[in-house]
Amino acid sequence: MHMLSLRILAAFLLFPQLLQAEDVGRPLLISEYVETGARHMGIRLLGAISLQGHKALAELSDLAWDEDEEILYGVTDRGRLLHLQPVIENGRLVNARLLRHFHLRNRKGKKLKKAAKDSEGLALERSSNGIRGDSLLAVSFEGDNRVDLYSPEGEFLRPVKLPDALRDKKFYKRGNKGLEALARHPQFGYMTGPEVSREGGDIPIFSQSGQRWHYRPLEPNGALVALEALDDGRLLILERAYSSVFEPLVISLSSAHPRRDNVNRVLQTQLLARFDNTQQWRTQNFEGLTRHRGERYFMVSDDGGESYLLTQLLYFETL
User: Residue 15 pLDDT more than 70?
Assistant: First the structure.
């Protein structure tokens, strides 16, 4: 085929996606005292927006950046998979576009039913190998606690084998305190754990092969809501602490380094940032985290499907 014809064909195939893409980012003031570009503890804020304008954005629970496709994937509590395109100008997040969205499907190709569709964590395979079209998406679910692999269009591929403990319903405090966080570690494979410990106290984080480490929450009522694994073996850990409307909502971001020589021990953590909504922060229910490029990251909040809450997307770098 002639080169010009190939270009016309490529443009034709892309055109429907361009028609569907819509701006969904709105400016967001995350703090009256810490401006974009300013430092807060161990991070620098690089922009914040709220995502709105489409029902698919409701209850967004985790993110994963695909470097090969330059797509920011998201999953929601309603069993949807989103393709987002962040708009970054001069190193600052200023907008986002919703490119496509899909329902996650079961083995038979049907939309996941209510009891099985509470997707909470997201991690990728083959997303930065320089090859387009081969990415795999691992999604963790709570309620029916499991991790499954999907195509970028939401098609079920196969389950991910988990340690026996995580497949036992009695391991979890209750149905909505399951596998909220998921990461793919360069040494230990997929890592996940319950939102809270059944007995209270330290929260176990498991590797695929059953090794476990323990995360000690930084705040009373702290819950493990997101993990991100870095190339050097460290984990970024996102914690949410909330008990009632009469208590502060505190979001904490810390780092830890799981290794073979500290299996079955409490991880030593370094606090990177703390957001307390009684201290002039307008942060809400953050529970999703992914690395973008270098030391830059996205963090997202879950609006719970409530009209009075926001889906907040925060962009920052660690220092």
Answer: no
Provide the pLDDT confidence category of residue 11 given band limits of 50, 70 and 90.
very low
Residue 233 tokens, joined = 């073996």
Instruction: Identify the three-state secondary structure at position 14.
Output: helix
Confidence of residue 8 (pLDDT cuts 50, 70, 90): very low
The band of 309, judged by pLDDT with boundaries at 50, 70 and 90, is very high
Q: Which CATH class is domain 21-318?
A: mainly beta
Which 3 state secondary structure label does DSSP give 76?
A: strand
Q: Which residue has the tokens 């493990």?
A: 224
Measuring CA to CA, how many Å separate 119 from each of 154, 203, 251? Answer: 12, 20, 21
Among candidates 77, 146, 82, which has minimal Cα distance to 118? 77
The model's pLDDT over 107-152, given as tens digits with 9 standing for 90+, comes to 999 999 988 999 999 999 999 999 999 999 999 999 999 999 999 9
User: What are the distances in angstroms from CA 167 to CA 21, 80, 162, 163, 201?
Assistant: 39, 23, 7, 7, 21
What whole-number distance in Å separates Cα of residue 145 and Cα of residue 169? 8
Q: 3-class SS at 20?
A: helix
Q: 152 is written with which tokens?
A: 């970028």
Task: Name, in order, each residue with C-beta under 8 angstroms of 62's C-beta and a sequence gap of 6 or more.
Answer: 74, 75, 119, 120, 121, 122, 182, 226, 287, 288, 289, 290, 300
Work out the number of other CB atoms within 10 angstroms of the CB of residue 49: 23
The structure tokens listed for 189 are 């494979």
Which two three-digit tokens encode residue 149? 């692999």
Using CA atoms, how far residue 65 sits from 132, 141, 223, in Å, is 13, 19, 24
Which residues partner with 44 through β-bridges? 39, 317
Task: Name 265's bridge partners.
Answer: none
Structure tokens at 102: 């899909």
How far is it, in rounded angstroms, from Cα 83 to Cα 239?
25
